[in-house]
Amino acid sequence: MQETSQADQVVITAPHRELLDQVLDKWSLQVLDKLCGRPSRFNELRREIPVVTQKSLTATLRRLERNGMVERVVVATRPIAVEYRITPLGTTLQDLIDALLRWSTANMADVERARARFDAEA
């Protein structure tokens, strides 16, 4: 068994919690997943994630841009367009997002059974 030193242990601090809350929230995962596939304009993202409101999508994109995961690029076309792209930092999340989606798909039936048991006992 390999021993771990204190230096190897991750301490969850307030900045860690804040970042994870912002990256793993309801809409961020979906936006990041879509943008890892290809750059998109705002309305393309709205069509790909039809349940998100304009206000929520705007807030999500700004939060992801602030955290360095997404960049907003003005495209010199007529009319001028804005495109959202995943950054190299954001790309590092793709394997993690895929793993979370695989895990949730593989375990959804167990989670639903646990919820039903809990709700029946409550």
TrEMBL record:
One of its GO terms (molecular function) is DNA binding. The keyword DNA-binding applies. Pfam families: HxlR (PF01638). Residues 14-112 form the HTH hxlR-type domain. SUPFAM superfamilies: Winged helix' DNA-binding domain. It comes from the Bacteria. Keywords: DNA-binding, Transcription, Transcription regulation. The keyword Transcription applies. PANTHER family: TRANSCRIPTIONAL REGULATOR, MARR FAMILY, TRANSCRIPTIONAL REGULATORY PROTEIN. This is HxlR family transcriptional regulator. It comes from Saccharothrix saharensis.
